[in-house]
Amino acid sequence: MVTILLISCKDEEERTPRQVTKSYTYSQNLRGSDGVKGELQLSDLNLTDIIGNDTVKNLTRAELQLADTYLEISGLHEVETTDTVAVVLEDFTINIGNRQEINLGNVSTEPQGTNDLASDVRYSTNQVVNLIQSIFSEITSERKQANINVTFTPNVDITSADNVQLIIHFGGIYHFVLE
């Protein structure tokens, strides 16, 4: 009597842990009207834009790389004004999803106070790192995206053509399984 034994084995490569390290820069145009406090709902930040759909589907965990994080408001120096007044975005506040908003203070071409931020400077303060940690937590959560809103009061008109930008840069290590 001949017996044939069939054994089904899954490929050992299946479900193999992998990781990818990526840096990402999120940038959005800012605009506003002189003296009017405005709120801008910026484009959502989606994890698939950073690491791709296949990696997102198989993501097991992620780690923010603190050394690779910064926030910058760029382009205020390029805004044309009728006189030589400093351009200021007063009470620049960022809200991530349903989290508590974070007021970064005034952003200016000529910062005066200790809490003022200068335009075109990359900041990695504790407050900025905490903000970026909130963004990273949102994009690596179940929803895989972060809703970002900003409010501020400019002292001059700022149009999209002025190219004033909010820049948020971060790096992460993304762990996933290869199927």
The helix/strand order is EEEHHEEEEHEEE
Query: What strand order characterises the main sheet?
Result: 2-9-5-6-7
Structural shape:
elongated
Question: Strand portion, in percent?
Answer: 35-45%
The largest sheet is: 5 strands, mixed
Mean pLDDT: 90
The CA-CA distance between the termini, in Å, is 40 Å
| Number of individual domains | 1
Count of discrete alpha- or pi-helical segments spanning 4 or more residues: 3
Number of strands: 10
Q: What Rg, in angstroms, do the CA atoms define?
A: 22 Å
Describe the structure.
The chain is mostly beta strands. The protein has one domain (16-178). 13% of the residues lie in helices and 44% in strands. The protein has helices at 47-51, 53-57, 126-139, and strands at residues 16-30, 38-41, 45-46, 59-74, 88-96, 102-108, 117-118, 145-146, 148-154, 164-178. It is elongated. Mean pLDDT is 90; it is low at 5-13.
Secondary structure elements and pairings:
Blueprint (H helix, E strand, L loop, with lengths): L15 E15 L7 E4 L3 E2 H5 L1 H5 L1 E16 L13 E9 L5 E7 L8 E2 L7 H14 L5 E2 L1 E7 L9 E15 L1
Parallel strand pairs: 6-7
Antiparallel strand pairs: 1-10, 2-9, 3-8, 4-10, 5-6, 5-9
Write a concise keyword list for the protein shown above.
elongated; mainly beta; about 15% helix; single chain; about 180 residues; 3 helices
